[in-house]
Amino acid sequence: xxxxxxxxxxxxxxxxxxxxxxxxxxxxxxxxxxxxxxxxxxxxxxxxxxxxxxxxxxxxxxxxxxxxxxxxxxxxxxxxxxxxxxxxxxxxxxxxxxxxxxxxxxxxxxxxxxxxxxxxxxxxxxxxxxxxxxxxxxxxxxxxxxxxxxxxxxxxxxxxxxxxxxxxxxxxxxxxxxxxxxxxxxxxxxxxxxxxxxxxxxxxxxxxxxxxxxxxxxxxxxxxxxxxxxxxxxxxxxxxxxxxxxxxxxxxxxxxxxxxxxxxxxxxxxxxxxxxxxxxxxx
Length: 283
Prior knowledge:
This protein is of the alpha/beta class. The model has no long low-confidence stretch (mean pLDDT 91). The strands form 2 sheets. Strands 3-2-1-7-8-10-9 form a 7-stranded mixed beta sheet, with helices on both faces. The two termini are 14 Å apart. The chain has helices at 16-23, 35-44, 46-50, 84-87, 104-111, 125-130, 151-156, 163-170, 193-196, 199-211, 221-228, 250-268, and strands at residues 2-10, 27-31, 54-57, 60-61, 67-74, 93-102, 113-119, 141-145, 175-180, 277-282. It has a single domain (2-184, 246-282), classed as Vaccinia Virus protein VP39 (Rossmann fold).
């Protein structure tokens, strides 16, 4: 049974998403594999924990339960991961911790099926979702990242682009939205990255910054921050039916993923970059 007031924050990091969910009145299960950050969360949200609005779990999400695995802590803690190549990609690894792993489905069995589950665990999103295949009760909405592979790796094996959407489809999800992480705009059948870097777009965005009047043509970040009365430096992505875009089916979304991957590479011409895009799904 789905619990309408429950959200899971898988990969809670410093707790920015968790704080927003709590502010909206949701109960939250926050999962953070980095033991340093997990302790930070417990201290930061001690009141919510005491009020039984929040549970903090210092575990990793893995393919098998009770699996002990190394967790690589990067100097850039946004990139810490169970995958060494991700953790050391942009900064050196400063510490390795041995962490207990749990399947996402097992976590749901223990604490309840959430209305929404946010997954951001640096390359292991598909691993987490795989455990939901064949389950009758799953979250109404899930968000994750589509891929954590370099452009060079994807060009060698294009199916890497579809790891998470394939996992979501196997878990029973049928409708999707692609969201750019930087500006919170939906990615559809129109060019996005090359459009934003055109001379006309650069002039318009400078005018918006100068005047303080922001449209949703080039970014939803300022408008969303203003509506929520939060700092522009961090804006939690809307989820579920609060997303303003159009939901598309599996095949259409796959086409969008490929289209925007090509557009991104055409703009950057850097095969070492990773195509970071959020994928939202509903049943």
